[in-house]
Amino acid sequence: MLKVAFVVLLIFSCSVFACNKTLKVGTNERNWPPYVVAVKNNLTGVEIDVLNTIFNGSSFCLKFMLLPTSSRAFEELKEGRIDVIFAASKTSARADFAYFSDAYRDEVVRLYKYTESPDLNNISDIFYKDLTVAVIMALRLSCLNRTTPLTLL
């Protein structure tokens, strides 16, 4: 009888540590050291550690999902197919369908452009298609030792 009571107690005590809900965490990041690194679709890094620490001891488990782009991640969040995105910048459009935490880390973002490219008058200029492509290409080509000088804005 004592053995039966012990087994029943053990089964019920294990359910205390079970997940009541699994939160789907979406990201497009695969190679963003030290924040996120994907090795065989297994994510590690500072951002992953932060999320695991936040939810450690809660009734939520985390399931990380790799998505092709950040735009896709926001669309999945908006449609309710994922529950969490990390390292996301808050915009008024995104605030219509998502809650944002307070900042949990500080970072400096630098924007580079070719010296012969037109000047940017406003940070929102980078979101226009032509400039976005130019910025991405400038960063990618600078990694390949391109000789055209880049200007730090």
Description:
The chain is an alpha/beta fold and 153 residues long. Helix content is 35%, strand content 20%. It contains five helices and eight strands. The protein has helices at residues 2-16, 46-55, 70-78, 92-95, 129-143, and strands spanning 21-27, 31-32, 36-39, 42-44, 60-66, 84-85, 112-114, 150-152. The chain has a three-stranded parallel sheet with strand order 5-1-6. A three-stranded antiparallel sheet has the order 2-3-4. Strand 2 and strand 3 form a beta hairpin. It is globular.
Structural class: alpha/beta
> Strands of the largest sheet, in order across it?
5-1-6
Taken from the alpha-carbon principal axes, the silhouette is: globular
Oligomer category = single chain
Average pLDDT works out at 75
The N- to C-terminal Cα distance equals 76 Å
* Beta strand count: 8
Count helical runs: 5
- Share of residues in helices: 25-40%
Q: Into which percentage range does the β-strand content fall? A: 15-25%
**Ranges with pLDDT <50 over ≥5 residues?**
1-15, 132-153
* Topology pattern, helix = H, strand = E: HEEEEHEHEHEHE
Main beta sheet: strand number and arrangement? 3 strands, parallel
The radius of gyration computed from the alpha-carbon positions, rounded to a whole number of angstroms, is: 22 Å
